[in-house]
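Consider a protein example.
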Amino acid sequence: MTTWSEFDTDAPIIAPVFRRRLTATGNLCLIATLRTDGFPRISPLEPRVFEGELWIGGMPGTTKFRDLDRDPRFCLHTATVDSMVGDGDVKLWGRVHDVQDAALHERYAEFLLEETGLDLRGEVFRPFYAADILSASAVEVRDGHMDVTIWKPGVGERVVRKH
């Protein structure tokens, strides 16, 4: 399993594209989870990078979090608003694990207040998912070709150029 900090160091092409897309969309991504019948579910999500981890948080009791409670596998896709993918595109695959640490939740609530103005101080975060990143890919269009960068832990990144 790979934390965000480890991924950020090990994926110098993909991680900056992910951060750039998060900034461009106000942290909007789409998360794919698995429904009880095995079919994928796509839901909007605003992940955050905080204290070296990628956090998959949101409103408790939603179907996406019930899915993750049952099966922790996910695919996170940066929101694409440009059909020419001019600003890049990233997918992260992984598993979540619930982190129940009151002091961490307090720090995160302060972080959210500063970053978004949303005041969740004193709230209980259940679940509060950290993402373990298992693989990733990015697409960037440059100079008339498309570069697909693929990352796996222990292997690093490789670029496949499509003409």
User: Anything to note?
Assistant: The longest strand covers residues 129-142. The CA atoms of residues 71 and 88 lie 29 Å apart.
